[in-house]
Amino acid sequence: MTTQRKFVAGGLVIVAAIAYLIWSGVSQSVVYFVTPSELLAAPVANKTYRLGGLVLPGSLEWDAKSLALSFTLSDGKAQVQVKHRGAPPDLFAEGRGAVVEGAWAREGYFRASLILAKHSEEYKAPHDGADPGYKELLKSLRGEGK
Amino acid sequence: MIPELGYAATVVGFVLALYGAMAAVIGVRTGRADWLRTGERAAVGIWILITACIALMLYAFLTFDFSVRYVAMNTNRGTPFYYRITALWGALEGSIVLWAWMLSIYTLIVVVRYRRRQPELYPWVLSVMLGILAFFLLVMSIPAPPFERLSPIPPDGRGLNPLLEDSGMITHPVALYLGFTGFSVPFAFAMAALLVGRTGDEWITITRRWTIVAWYFLSLGLLIGGWWSYHVLGWGGYWAWDPVENAAFMPWLTGTAFLHSVMIQERRRMLKLWNLTLIILTFGLTLFGTFLTRSGIIGSVHSFTQGSIGVFFLAFLTLTLLGAFSLLAWRTDHLRAQGELDSAVSRESVFLLNNLFLIAATFTVFFGTVFPLLSEAARGVKVSVGAPFFNLVNIPIFLALLFLMGVGPLIAWRRASAENLKRNFLKPVLAGIVAAAVLRLFGVGNVLVLTAMALVVFVAGTITLDYGRAVRARRRSGDEWGAATWGLLLRQNRRYGGFVVHLGILVIALGVAGSQAWSLQTETTLEKGQSVELAGYRVRFDGLSASEESNHFKVTGAFTMTTGRSSFAELRPARKFYPQEQTPIAAVDYRLGWVEDVYLVLGDFARDGSRATVKLQVNRLVSWLWIGGLVLTLGAALAILPDHRKPA
């Protein structure tokens, strides 16, 4: 029986160690989901947030040279300016939903380390042929090629 | 007409499955074989009906029958031929059909293989399999009907999710679902053994091989999924701890635990209760994964946010678990261990630890995945834990598992003597320490990487040592080198199949550690003719071109890559604009290598083609993930082969 008991004791020690790992893992990597109004109500610097909202039309600024991306996320009530270094990802555009992960900067904006654009699943009426925008792009790129 | 036929086939199939499940039970209770035979005929009928459903769906896809909602949602007139076939399982409804079809095939295999060989367990196995089939046919009839009509009929369909236009999407779902559904067979045998009260060794032997089959396919599915993520999604990674990945990973972990603990039952007649629990958990987790990802309760790149299907899965999962665990409780007296643990330093104890860590990993993945739900329910705060949580907790667990992988196969059963330990482990331990010291000298500072590499060398050492001894033993009994080396794999395919799987895991560990520790990336904007440099690679931007494909519009970047040795390659990353998507999809270009991959993503660009923003990555040792995966699946296939060893 003593062997059996040793096993139980050893097992408990390991379980406790893993429980501690999980607990410290959660406290180190927890991310709070907030809307712009929730964030502005009580912003805490250096806490990791996931901020979700609509990319305000007309607010998107992208400087390809310096890779500086800036836009405003809105939930209808409040607006937060977001800054990010890097190209706007796929599925990201003005007027669409986006979730950004990052921290509140003391200077009064949200510094995003990651942009997760929201994939829209809603049904969209199919086009007749390609979008005119593409045709124009095609022309300008082909003109460049020649 | 077609959709109505399909719907009728589904409903008839559901009724047949219920009837067959009951007929099998009546047959065994009354001892009348004709009842059992009608149950078998029902199983054949269901297979024919689901096959017909698939044929009808294919027909609808190939003839662009947009009056079927599922076809209209997942293809359009531009969808290439191959992807009109794979679109069949491109979304929820179709993947349920595929699932049910595979389950019906497994059911037929069970009928053919076991109707004579296992007369006692077989009727119950058949009944359980048909019961599970009934559930999937119910899902196909009510919450996820693949043949639902769309009115008015649109002139063109919406099109397949562009990310699914990849050859990986032909094989990934098939392998994954063969894995998922494969676990129903061991589950059915476990339930049958409990119902009959024959919890001896037969069901375990049958179940073990079936579990390896399911495990083989699930591993393959996970690997192809990782490859898809790596070369399609364009973020340079292969595993994101996304809920849908976790959903497939959890049954893989518990299945792995079962494959190990089953050996203790075979050898020492212990852990019977535990093994049954693992089988039930594994099967339950395959259902739970579907519930999690298909109900839309947790956001995922894969989730389809569909309504009532979650309720169906949750109800069936609850019923299954309640039923299975009640059976288990009812039969506890049959499940007492006939052996006992003798010593803490023994193979049994290593296997127990292996199970403990695998279950801990499963729990960690589970906890992290449902954490947002728990937290919202308990505290009303919306929070989540991402990849850092999973990595932080799982890395130590997986390192411990690596260590046990080296110890387990060589340590003695019952009680290991100091002599046994020294003989088997002294050299591999020294090799591991030397490897870590050498890497440290070469400037590797990361403790986790050093530990991982030391463990990889240690485990590889134990495998080499053991295999070398076995080969020498064969040589002494007169075999040629070739026969001794390769013949051994076949002669003791079960043991050495396992060793090959372990080798595969080692190679994967190498790839994971290397890619996490040594990969580099940079993001920059280039004018035409400008170059970006990273890790000795120079990538020059030569211009953009545009083209119209059958179902999308594509902007391709031309880049020339040169290295110090002046060899060069053309890289052609692109951005694809699909009319049904509001934003473009990136298409990565990459060059795979033994040591490092060069990986180029085209981001934003100027409309006149003079400027492009690119992300350049040099990903280290990633190829070893795929090589390791190949080795692992080969090992699993070897272990599935009939056992050549004569039973002692």
Plain-language structure description:
The complex is a heterodimer of chains A (146) and B (648). Chain A is α+β, with helices and mostly antiparallel strands and 146 residues long. Helix content of chain A is 33%, strand content 32%. Chain A is built from three helices and seven strands; from the N terminus they run αβαββββββα. Chain A has a five-stranded mixed β-barrel with strand order 2-4-5-7-6. In chain A, a hairpin with a 3-residue loop joins β6 and β7. Chain A is elongated. The N and C termini of chain A lie far apart (86 Å). The relative contact order of chain A is 0.13. About 10% of the residues of chain A have low confidence. Chain B has 648 residues and is α+β, with helices and mostly antiparallel strands. Chain B is built from 19 helices and eleven strands. In chain B, the strands form two sheets. In chain B, strands 3, 4, 5, 6, 7 and 8 form a six-stranded antiparallel beta sheet that branches. In chain B, strands 2-11-10-9 form a four-stranded antiparallel beta sheet. In chain B, β5 and β6 form a beta hairpin. In chain B, α2 runs parallel beside α6, α8 packs antiparallel against α9 and α9 runs antiparallel to α19. The longest helix of chain B is centred in the middle third of the chain and has 33 residues. Classes of the chains: A alpha+beta (146), B alpha+beta (648). β1 of chain A pairs antiparallel with β1 of chain B.
- The helix/strand series of chain B, from N terminus to C terminus, equals HHHHHHHHHHHHHEHHHHHEEEEEEEEEEH
Structural class of the secondary elements of chain A? Answer: alpha+beta
Largest sheet properties of chain B: 6 strands, antiparallel
Distance between the termini of chain A: 86 Å
- Rounded radius of gyration of chain A (Å): 24 Å
Q: How many distinct helices of chain A?
A: 3
Rg of chain B, alpha carbons: 27 Å
Count of DSSP strands of chain B: 11
- Write down the overall geometry of chain B: globular
Largest sheet of chain A: 5 strands, mixed, barrel
- Percent of residues of chain A in beta strands? 25-35%
Name the quaternary structure: heterodimer
Mean pLDDT of chain B: 89
Q: Poorly predicted ranges of chain A (pLDDT <50, ≥5 residues)? A: 119-132
* Helix percentage range of chain A: 25-40%
Instruction: List the secondary-structure elements of chain A in sequence, H or E.
Output: HEHEEEEEEH
Number of separate helices of chain B: 19
